[in-house]
Structures are given as structure tokens and as C-alpha cells.
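PROTOCOL LOG
Step 1. Enter all chains and additional molecules of the complex.
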Amino acid sequence: MARTSGTLQTTLRAPVSLTGIGVHSGLPVSVTLHPADPNTGITFLRTELAHGGEVEIAADWRSVAATELCTVIGDPSKATVATIEHLMAALRGLMIDNVIVEIDGAETPVMDGSSAAFIDAIDQVGIVTQSARRRYIKVLKPIRVEAGSGWAELRPYDGTRFEVTIEFPIDLIGKQTFAADMTPAVFRKDLSRARTFGFVKDLEKLIPLGLCRGSSLENSVAIRDDRVLNPEGLRYVDEFVRHKALDAVGDIALSGAPILGLFRSYRGGHRLNFQTLQALFADETAWTLVDGAVARRESSSNAELGSSMAAPAFGPNRAA
Ligand SMILES: [Zn+2]
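Step 2. Run joint prediction.
Step 3. Record the structure below.
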């Protein structure tokens, strides 16, 4: 199977479909991942709308409509897609640049609550390298956002790294940190199978509000009184923080291109992840676009010479 070289864009070898239910709506939904041309990025195509039309929604931070319990993109007056983060994490985790996500409902299927089913679907068809160069968003200076005791940052870093810490006042979770340089192999092995989790006491409040209606032990780790209710237990001893890191990979993928930088968060979530991207793109001096080959050359010259070459900016094509 073609693996990413780091310098060229990728897409899927063929279309592949999945069906499941939305975790909030509880309604059935089908998704087909289609190969797409270079520089398409990840674009959702909402079909089966009430008025019969279709609407394209770019998987981009500028499309974000809500971040309360999941990440929602689209224009609420036309069409939206909710809970995109686990699919986005799978696509970014495997470094797939160009895909059309055709979806016939308002929420991405939750599957088992992780990215595993999306990875399996992608593996069924395989990944192909395209002729166009990949461009990266290189973080040039630290950006930080805060909310209460939580915060999130993007910092300059020679590579792509995630450091995510959570802290919950129960013995089952406590304080957990996941930190790793992110590669497709690391994403597959260390993050992709980590499931979403929730507290039964919260669920009892959310279901009457029309949320979490599809939530079950099939697609979430349920916690009651410091105990996991799922008979199979946890997939990783620190599955909770790994899922939060998976969410961060998916949310930060809304940057529109892979990030060269370090993402860090403490007690973060979808809103702080999104606000980090807003803050990054609000400051034109905080980032630049670099060619994949330049990024690679630069990191090897840094390693050999300890020098830091200036990366060229793609002025006219800057995405913000
Ligand atoms: Zn999640």
C-alpha cells in the first residue's frame, strides 16, 4: 500500500462506504468517502436535504458552527454535519489530504466511538499518492487560549507533536497525559481505538435535551461512581486521555493542512481546540505555509547543522 512520503498529497484509491447511527440523534446515517483531486482538502457533501438539494461544506475552521459536545460544521440555515472529529482524526491521522465525504444525514456515524471503523474502511481501499506537493502550516510563534483552568497552545516545533493532559476529580481517571510525535503508525496504534466516554449522571440530563440519544455501551465508555460500566472494560489503561488526543487531532485537522508544530492542552476540548485555530489564523505572523519538501529538507538540515533556514511563504496562496 502506498504510504505517505510526507512531500506529496494523498487520496483514497477507491470510494468506500460505512453506515451507522449518530450518537446524538440516534438516527441511521450513511457515509461514502470518495477519492478527490489534489488541493480539494476534506469536503463534506450533505445529501438528502429536506428541499432535495445538496450542500458542500469544507472541513475547515471557518465552517465551524458549534463546539458544545462535538464539533459541528456548516451553515445552520442551510445544512450542517455534527460529530465530524473522529472521522477527521482518521483522515489526518493517516495523512490523507483529499477526500469528498458524502453524507446523507446531519451527523457522522459514531460507529464504536473511536476512529477504528474509519481506519478499517480506509484500509479496505488503500491510500494513493498524488502528483501535487503537500503544503504544511508551520507554526512560527506560540499561540495560547484559556478557559477557566483549561488551556491550549500551538508552539513552533520541528515536526508534528501532540501533548494532551486531562484531569478529572475521580480515581478512575485522575490526571492523565498523552504525548507523542504524530505519525500514521502512532495514530493507528496509540490513538485510533480510544473511545469517547461519558458520565451516566450527565447522560441522564442530556437525553431529554435530544442529545446522546444514540449513546450506548456499543459506542462509548460509560462511567458511574468511579466505575466503567462496559463489561469489556477499557482498551487502553489511559483510554480517556487517548480519546481526548484523538479529538484534538481531528479538531486541529480543521486547519485545512497538516500542522508543523506542537499542540498542547490541559483540560481542553472541542471549543478550546477550535479557539486555538482561530487565534493562530488571527495572527498572520504566527504561521506560514511551507512546501512538504522544504519542511523535510529544513528538518534534516536542522538536525545536521543545527541551523534554522527561513521557510518561504506562499504569499498569494495563503489560506486565511
Ligand atoms: Zn471524541
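Step 4. Note key features.
Residues 85-86, 196, 243, 247 surround zinc ion (CB under 6 Å).
The radius of gyration is 19 Å.
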